[in-house]
């Protein structure tokens, strides 16, 4: 039992008694004290010793009484056993080395026409795309990338899709091998909103080249000024092969100056259902010129041909379908938060096959058609992650292609506007 903190410690009291005794003895034998004789001194010492013994007995009795009284006091409850703290819910974590990126893209669009497949029918607010990119960068040997998309379709609904799903492995000497679904390395414009300088894609992008393919790809940059990619895939914009042949393609990139990049691409293969004989071939030359930090000029030249194209055959003509396109884009950053984009593109669909494939009104005679568009877009950097732009676009055609509201009549021109916000993370 612990002694009360308010009572003197017994050992301390005894020490003080002995100190007093020795002090008295010292005083008794000190010079200058007058005692009758030694017998008188001895008697006094015995008397003092008896007194000290009596004091010691009294102290022991008091200590015993204190202990008895302490035993009668209510004892404090023992401290409660501490409960283990509840484990907090751990925040969502990715595996080491995995990165999460993506974007959210929304817009308001309006048009004086209802062009099938372009998404500019009437005026509307919409979320155009939500993308989550899960990336494990290639380290010493292997990595992967998956791009999950939630996209608005032409009918105004939404669809969930896997834009890219790539497994990558290093083969040595800087050569990388990819397997899966990937963006086809052809053309100048890219697919996703954060990579564009305007809201809409050009006719060359929409009609002249593929966007996605599934298969295998090899790529390498052996020196700083040269890179190459070659691939073997199922076909244009398809996950499953629609015939028994494969499509092959590649791109060779050249950067002779820091401000200049040029790419030469080619892709060829049979793209018609259950048809392995009639090939579709595209040659594309893209370029990027950046003479200053504020000015960028980019574009491409595109040529394509398809043997015995079905739309041309359905029109009663036995001929190949040919097309040719030109694109030029100029972007200038006036301020750190303000830029301007101008774009012009020309697409000559000599037999009308590419326009028909894109979903435009069928042309009974399968005659040729020339499409042109001009786009102007001020761009805004609102924050490091949030950007916006305003786009005005004018389209015109050599034939009546753009439907009036109600779809009863087609015109040869169209005007459309868009306001877009894109948040990247």
Topology:
Layout (H helix, E strand, L loop, with lengths): L9 H19 L9 H35 L26 E13 L12 E13 L5 E11 L5 E15 L2 E9 L19 H6 L3 E12 L2 E8 L13 E11 L2 E11 L8 E11 L5 E12 L3 H5 L6 E13 L4 E12 L3 H6 L10 E13 L4 E12 L4 E2 L6 E2 L1 E12 L1
Describe the structure.
Helix 1 packs antiparallel against helix 2. Mean pLDDT is 84; it is low at 1-36, 76-92 and 116-120. This protein is elongated. Helices cover 17% and strands 45% of the residues. The longest helix has 35 residues, at 38-72. With 425 residues, the chain is of the alpha+beta class. The strands form two sheets. The protein has a 16-stranded antiparallel beta barrel. It contains five helices and 18 strands. It folds into two domains: 10-70; 99-424, Porin (Beta Barrel), CATH 2.40.160.10. The chain has helices at 10-28, 38-72, 203-208, 310-314, 353-358, and strands at 99-111, 124-136, 142-152, 158-172, 175-183, 212-223, 226-233, 247-257, 260-270, 279-289, 295-306, 321-333, 338-349, 369-381, 386-397, 402-403, 410-411, 413-424.
Low-confidence stretches: 1-36, 76-92, 116-120
Report the order of strands and helices.
HHEEEEEHEEEEEEHEEHEEEEE
Described by the principal axes of the CA atoms, the overall outline is elongated
Q: Helix segment count?
A: 5
CATH fold type of the largest domain: Porin
> Strand order of the main beta sheet, please?
1-2-3-4-5-6-7-8-9-10-11-12-13-14-15-18
The residue-averaged pLDDT reads: 84
Number of strands: 18
